[in-house]
């Protein structure tokens, strides 16, 4: 993982120091300098922001092992136990702009609680059990990889992985999952290139991009559309969504089909 400043991909910058490299794998996140150098656009703000936090219970968290969602008008929240003592929660709200960056955790917690002050007490209790320093507020962004328009995933021996290439909103829970999938596919392609004389590293990178794009592009769009639907603020539309679409038309099996990924052994 490094920041490339050289068009041949051999020389990189990391922490201000220069180093010689044979291959550069850019897995440096949403604001990737490597992606910028390769010509990718900045991720686009999608119109809503999220508070996230991690509640802590030294004596053991009290919730059942299931995901809980609450839907409002232009506002939604969710929480789920992630260990015997920790509960993850989020609040997603509409916003006309990303807003200022706030680092004061006390302010962040206050703002988050004000959004849901009349919501179920269980959610408020979880927020009260959250150490201030675990709370963050982030604008949600994505980047759509249009065919024949977006730059390729690789340039010579420089290649992108995960959020550096395809940032997506968290509405399907697939951002980190897709980054892991990228890594598995890239490792296979690169290993074959290194262990044989039939394929170059550059060809391996191009093959990786060709295999991953048909999965990444639809997931990014789907995540965006799902998030937009869940953030509706029209009262009539929200009533239809909450009372008909979610309880009667949305089935968990088909909804989670996008999480299926099968890979050969490395």
TrEMBL record:
Domain of life: Eukaryota
Molecular function as annotated in GO: FAD binding; monooxygenase activity
Pfam families: FAD_binding_3
Gene3D superfamilies referenced in this protein's UniProt entry, alphabetically: FAD/NAD(P)-binding domain
Coiled coil segments of this chain: none
Positions of the FAD-binding domain: 14-215
Keyword GTP-binding attributed: no
Family annotation (InterPro entries): FAD-bd (IPR002938), FAD/NAD-bd_sf (IPR036188), MOase (IPR044560)
Swiss-Prot/TrEMBL keywords: Monooxygenase, Oxidoreductase
Family: Belongs to the 3-hydroxybenzoate 6-hydroxylase family.
Protein's UniProt name: FAD-binding domain-containing protein
């Amino acid at each position: 993982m490094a920041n490339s400043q050289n068009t041949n991909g051999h020389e990189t910058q990391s922490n201000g120091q220069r180093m010689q490299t044979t291959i550069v794998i850019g897995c440096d996140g949403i604001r990737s300098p490597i992606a910028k150098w390769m010509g990718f656009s900045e991720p686009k703000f999608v119109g809503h922001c999220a508070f996230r936090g991690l509640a802590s219970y030294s004596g053991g968290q009290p919730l059942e092992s299931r995901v809980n969602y609450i839907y409002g008008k232009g506002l939604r929240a969710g929480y789920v136990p992630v260990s015997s003592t920790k509960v993850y929660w989020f609040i997603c709200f509409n916003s006309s702009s990303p807003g200022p960056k706030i680092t004061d955790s006390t302010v962040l917690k206050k703002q988050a609680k004000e959004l849901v002050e009349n919501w179920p007490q269980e959610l408020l209790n979880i927020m009260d059990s959250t150490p201030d320093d675990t709370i963050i507020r982030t604008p949600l962004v994505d980047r759509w990889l249009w065919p024949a328009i977006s730059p390729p995933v690789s340039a010579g021996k420089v290649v992108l992985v995960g959020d550096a290439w395809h940032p997506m909103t968290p509405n399907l829970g697939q951002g980190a999952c897709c980054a892991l999938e990228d890594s598995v596919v890239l490792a296979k392609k690169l290993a074959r290139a290194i262990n044989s004389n039939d394929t170059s590293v550059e060809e391996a990178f191009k093959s990786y991009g060709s295999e991953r794009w048909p999965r990444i592009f639809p997931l990014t769009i789907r995540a965006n559309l799902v998030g937009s639907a869940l953030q509706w603020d029209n009262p009539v539309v929200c009533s239809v969504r909450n009372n008909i679409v979610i309880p009667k038309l949305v089935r968990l099996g088909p909804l989670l089909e996008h999480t299926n990924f099968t890979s050969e052994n490395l």
